[in-house]
Amino acid sequence: MHLEIEKISKSYGNEEVIKDLSLQLEANKTLSILGKSGCGKTTMLKIIAGLTKPDNGSIKMAGKDISDLSPEKRGIVYLYQEDLLFPHLNVFENIAFGLRIRKENEADINRKVNEMLLFLELEKQAQRMPHELSGGQRQRVSFGRAIIINPSILLLDEPFGSLDSGTRQRMQHLFKDMADKFQITSLLVTHDLKEAILMGDQIGFMKKGRLQVYNSRDEFINDPQTGVQSELHFWEGLKNEKTEQL
Ligand SMILES: Nc1ncnc2c1ncn2[C@@H]1O[C@H](COP(=O)(O)OP(=O)(O)OP(=O)(O)O)[C@@H](O)[C@H]1O
């Protein structure tokens, strides 16, 4: 198992924000987690990234306990909605940044960044500065920057939240292609039911700090608390009304 979280909890004052949270995630899979605002999704991601210390519980990666490792040593990338690009660096250099920090040689950097630019369909924008890009293009650059360093786990916090629905859909498909090609293991949190179903190999539902993971899409769809059933009834009701009017 690539990621194993066992019985993590976290309180702020009297508020228990994460309650006995456990999950397991295989390598090269995506776990999407659906939950309402305030249910503890971001806190969970911060704990996995090492930015927040849990009160109890353990985190293992590839069998090794990483609970006491600093964020830098975990090799995890945490990408959130407002993730900013470096404004003074062009697209190429934004994507190359992590490789330069790791002191990779120039030929490797050029090869990897050019491959990534091609994949992201950003080769024509390579020399542009972030302020000269659209929201969707900026988003693609931030994915490229995150994925090029081959993170052990990619944590995505509402990554498509600020995009219009067409761009959002394109980005969801692009991310799925990238996850396959670059063999990414990721956790993605979202408020969006369809996004959770579309993106996840496994789907989790978080409510008031408790996480339930469903191992199949059917299990998730059939549980009334996930909201899929009421969504289906809504559309069915609308369809029947229309048919009656005809
Ligand atoms: N540093 C902190 N100090 C005190 N309380 C906090 C802190 N961080 C989060 N909380 C509280 O923990 C709860 C969960 O917050 P969290 O940000 O994890 O929710 P979320 O599910 O990510 O919400 P959203 O979808 O709105 O981002 C909230 O009630 C929040 O007020």
UniProtKB/TrEMBL annotation:
This is ABC transporter ATP-binding protein. GO terms for biological process: quaternary ammonium group transport. Keywords: ATP-binding, Cell membrane, Ion transport, Iron, Iron transport, Membrane, Nucleotide-binding, Transport. It comes from Marivirga atlantica. Coiled coil: none annotated. Pfam families: ABC_tran. The lineage of its organism: Bacteria, Pseudomonadati, Bacteroidota, Cytophagia, Cytophagales. Residues 3-233 form the ABC transporter domain. GO terms for cellular component: membrane. GO terms for molecular function: ABC-type ferric iron transporter activity; ATP binding; ATP hydrolysis activity.
